[in-house]
Amino acid sequence: RHGLMRAAASPYSVIGAIKDYWSARGGASGWLGSPRSNEMPARGGVYQQFDGGTVYWSATTGAHAVHGAIFGAYAALGYEGSYLGLPVTNETATTGGVYQRFQGGTMYWSAAGGAHAVHGANLDAYGRYSYERGRLGMPLTDETATTGGVYQRFQGGTMYWSATTGSHPVWSGILSLYAAKGYERGSLGMPTTDEYRSSDGRT
User: Which of the residues 69, 141, 164, 165 could staple to 115 if both were Cys, CB 3.0 to 4.6 A apart?
Assistant: First the structure.
């Protein structure tokens, strides 16, 4: 039923949708290489390890490989058991690096910043400014807890979130002044709006 394929010189079998995905990328001769495990259960689906990465499959997401630095960051979060869940796309080239979408967010990688996930309200706010192609550029850090909420640094600014204020980026000259005032831990606290044009500049 699954179209069983046994990799040459490997004790492991590759079957079903993962076999189709692996075969389409050259099988053992492709970048995924030979299997290192049989198909195993994952939260919401199954996965199989290969020399070049791990392929995940579920009925709702299909088969997608996670590999390289993005896999390292995914592992650090807890794989599919984390808020990211299962991958829903393959790794895709973009301005300044690559990205991969997951059920619970998007992982970005750049040579300058490494691999970092953006999710939840911060991802929505990131989208308002065209994601990595916009003014914020690539993420440089993971989301980090701070007084009253979280922050995440990007090439072009810093995103702040709290339950009462939502997510808003701070950048350029306003970010420099915010830094001088102690960021979110100072007298200004969290930003409550995005930057907007006012009669005498930007506010």
Answer: 69
Q: With CA atoms as reference, report the closest residue to 175 among 145, 154, 144, 199.
A: 154
Q: pLDDT for 91-110, tens place per residue? A: 999 999 999 999 999 999 99
Interval 133-154: pLDDT, tens: 999 999 999 999 999 999 999 9
Handedness of CA 83, 85, 89, 90 (dihedral sign): positive
Q: How far is CA 49 from CA 11, 36, 38, 40, 73, in A?
A: 13, 5, 8, 9, 16
- Please tell me the distance from the alpha carbon of residue 18 to that of residue 187, in angstroms, as a whole number: 54
Q: In whole angstroms, what is the distance from residue 66 CA to residue 86 CA?
A: 10
Report the pLDDT value the prediction gives residue 143, as an integer from 0 to 100: 97
Mean pLDDT for all residues in the chain = 95
d(CA 165, CA 150): 11
Judge whether 140 and 116 are in contact, CB under 8 Å: yes
DSSP letter assigned to residue 37: S
Question: Any residues with CB less than 8 A from the CB of 38 and at least 6 apart, and which?
Answer: 12, 13, 48
Counting residues of the chain whose pLDDT is more than 90, the rounded percentage is 93
What are the DSSP calls for 139-194, one per residue?
Answer: B-S--EEETTEEEEEETTEEEEEETTTEEEEE-HHHHHHHHHTTGGGSTT-S--S-
